[in-house]
Amino acid sequence: MIEQYYETIARRYEQLNEKTQNQLLSVSNVRCLKKGERLFEADTLPRYSAFVVSGALKYYYIDEEAGERIVDLCIENDVLCNFDNYLQKRLCNYSVQAVQHSTVICLDNGLLDKIYFANHQLLQFGAKLAHAVIQRQKEHIHLLSMKNPITRYRYILDQHPQLLQSFSLTELARYLNLSRETLSRARLALMNEARSICD
After folding, report:
1. Among candidates 28, 77, 43, 38, which has minimal Cα distance to 59?
2. Where would I find the H helices in the chain?
3. Are residues 154 and 199 in the same domain?
4. Does 139 reside within a domain?
5. For residue 140, is it within any domain?
6. I want to staple 146 with a disulfide (CB 3.0 to 4.6 A). Which of 93, 120, 151, 180 is the partner?
7. Which residues span the domain enclosing 81?
8. Using one digit for the tens of pLDDT, what is the confidence trace for 74-118?
9. Nearest CA-CA partner of 176 in 196, 191, 193, 159
10. What CATH number does the domain containing 111 carry?
């Protein structure tokens, strides 16, 4: 299963030679997460980076008022990259939790550290994965800069409709930094807009 998945990932990011694939396989293992199970906790050193094979996970932290703040949503083929935190011995300020039954391929950061800098292709591959994570974060910042809740919801509807199938309305509202009620009204407004166009 891991071999087949890495072939898929390689087609998306960069073709890997046999040596690099074997090195990745040597530091990888499959984990099946139940709904609600955490891949790692806030205030700990991240042991793993990971690829999402199936399911859905959320990055979140708890704010000063004990409210959950969701900063990222991950679905099939997304990467969870925490290698820099591990190298810098910097604790994570967020947790990652499965919101449904999920399968992930975990890369042991400690073992990865021993092979990463000796393999130029692995360095390039890691840089592309890190870039994908940064682009996802930049997109989220851009999304939050949209002042209108309807505009935010429409962006998700147009650009990432799969998120609507994977996450609850409450989780989407927290990701969009909206109340659940505000998101419900935005969704209803778009539904009414679509009906008026059809009529």
Report:
1. 38
2. 2-12, 18-26, 83-87, 109-116, 120-144, 149-159, 162-166, 169-175, 180-198
3. yes
4. no
5. no
6. 151
7. 2-134
8. 999 899 887 777 778 888 889 999 999 999 999 888 888 888 888
9. 159
10. 2.60.120.10
